[in-house]
Amino acid sequence: MLMFIIRRLLQTIPVIVGVTFVVFIIMHLVPGDPAVLMAGEGASKEAIQSLRESLGLDRPLYIQYFDYLIHIFQGDFGVSLKNSKPVLDEILVRLPITMELAFYSILITIVLGMIAGIISAVKQYTLTDIGVMIIALLGISLPSFWFGLMMMYLFSVKLQILPVAGWESWQNIILPAVTLGAGGAAIVARMTRSSMLEVIRQDYVRTARAKGLRERVIIYKHALRNALIPVITVVGLQFGALLGGTVIVESIFAINGLGRMIVDSIRMRDLPMVQGGVLVASLIFVIVNLLVDIFYRFFNKRIELN
Known about the structure:
The chain contains twelve helices and no strands. Helices cover 78% and strands 0% of the residues. GO terms for molecular function: dipeptide transmembrane transporter activity; nickel cation transmembrane transporter activity. This is Nickel import system permease protein NikB. It holds the Pfam family BPD_transp_1_N.
């Protein structure tokens, strides 16, 4: 297990390099000059050129990229072009908020999705099964930004029982977490149903029923454990989707997290901030996938970790 973890961590190095390269190139292809945005519309050409030279933006792209890469591996994410603050410090302030939002969202995804999937599988082809799958289909189909706005309109504007925006109390968590976790819960529900239906048809489940075990014991002790392997895969992928979804949800609900920081930085052409934020989000996704592989082995000892 230790060697597996070490190998996977070493494999993250080319992933990090690839992410930095793609984000670096994309941000330099976006129209607009960061120096112009920083200097202001009334700045002279000499002032703008001087600012570009001080920021190193006048150098060839490949030199800028390799210089950035060297600093990244030294733990230096650079300085924000917007406020001249260290990028890493800004990320560390915003990251806990985003991780908290992602945690509650993935909790909703897992709990609601698995409960709905199990109920749907146990009551296959009944009205309950059909109703759950219709709701799941709607959850997958509805865009998160539209769903979030509708939730805000209903619970904040009309009913006035939840706050519109912010991140000060537990009430502020409900709408963003449900908005972010609803689509994932629908996907997990469909996968759990499919996996459970496959498992409960196996011979060992029939044997357990023949021995007279209670149905609840058969479902939760025997069937569910073996049905979790593909579900864990989906949950791991959904965590990555949640990190991407925070960009939209944090903007809708005015949450000062990592996702909103990236959006604001893209608007301001703050290259170091965008690159740092995307890099940290990518690292989190890689770590989550590593944990998913470890959970595979925990739930099924026959799986080899390579």
